[in-house]
Amino acid sequence: MSFHVDSETGRLRRVILHRPGLELKRLTPSNKADLLFDDVLWVRRAQEEHDRFAALLRGRGVEVHLFGDLLTESLDVPAARTLVLDRVFDEREYGPLATDTLRAAFDALPTGELAEALVGGVTKREYLERHPAPASVRFHVMGLDDFLLNPLPNHIFTRDTSAWVYDGVAINAMRWPARQRESVHFEAIYRHHPLFTGAAAGEFRTWAEGQGAHPSTIEGGDVLVIGNGAVLVGLSERTTPQAVELLAKRLFEAGSARTIVALDMPKRRAFMHLDTVLTMVDGETFTQYAGLGMLPSYTIEPGGDGQELKVTDHPPEHMHRAIAAALGIGAIRVLTPVQDVHSAEREQWDDGCNVLAVEPGVVVAYERTVTANAHLRAQGFEVLEVAGSELGRGRGGPRCMSCPVERDPVS
Ligand SMILES: NC(=[NH2+])NCCC[C@H](N)C(=O)O
């Protein structure tokens, strides 16, 4: 039983979720925007909502792996600990006077505490409760309540940091500083956790390695494994064309995919990822936000005649046609509930389109997106509702909060 994701809606077998913790208690009105949140959360309630989301998936036969456990268990592996600490404690971040001291202090922590520090963050005050101050300008100039290690509240959106595409995983380079440190945690997990290195894991490929502050950023919310060797990608605020070309080369070289359709999306926070406006509900049906409109698209395929990639441009009106052609079907079905523009905009903001399928035709959605859910039901889909009054404040729904690692094709 190896790891692979062959579709968006085939039977979901295993998924990585992150139960929110300390990192969300760090959100304040003054730091929330930099940390990519729109509000502060009542963390206890968010945990309850998240626990019910996980329980619902388990009840549907999905095996849930919690990111916090995976990270802690990975850090028990010396090579994983070294990988993470080397990446985090960089002289360019902490300066030559403090880096080694800080690294040693964190390296001395038991794995559970190290994992919590890496994700939940540590203030200068908390550090000084247990350690003397290093003789470092970088350290001395910090306010007592400044973060020595920033919290990573967006780890809850496990969809984005890594993305399984057919028989491999892309560990993503993230667009904004608030999320860039997340990637090394997934690198440690996929490279060193016994779940992924053990014999039972089988072989899987790696499409991207996640590092670097370069423009080749890509986030999993923009990547839809639509099935039949096709991938749909959003060129969004977060995902750049160069990253998609690199992904295409790797996928085609391995023979793992045949075609990628890239949609040129508006570069706006409300539409930050493709899955905030378009997701799949079965093998040929999509739920789409009314305000998205039709977008220019590009089909990328392996090139003949020594050209590495073949690119075909499509005008906006051919967007759905290009997706259908990639899937190898005559037409796709696109569902958009009929509602006034204001209600539609509110439901998009509340992740009405961000559904997670557990099998073809059965999706998990937030309960608050009443019109979108009713519309799917009227079309014959089963909608399993979860509460999201707190969870939703980070701008991510059930699809964003889940990273499938094993999912069947749609037959
Ligand atoms: N796949 C998604 N739509 N993820 C939503 C991520 C939301 C998160 N606050 C961010 O701004 O990065």
TrEMBL record:
Tell me what this protein is called: Arginine deiminase
Instruction: List the catalytic residues.
Output: C400
Q: By its UniProt entry, which HAMAP family does this protein fall under?
A: Arg_deiminase
Alphabetical keyword list? Arginine metabolism, Cytoplasm, Hydrolase
For this protein's source organism, the top of the classification is: Bacteria, Bacillati, Actinomycetota, Actinomycetes, Kitasatosporales
Spell out the family assignment given in the record's similarity comment.
Answer: Belongs to the arginine deiminase family.
Please give the Gene Ontology molecular function terms for this protein: arginine deiminase activity
The cross-references to InterPro entries, in alphabetical order and at most eight, read: Arg_deiminase
The UniProt record lists the EC number as 3.5.3.6
Which organism was this protein described from? Answer: Streptomyces hoynatensis
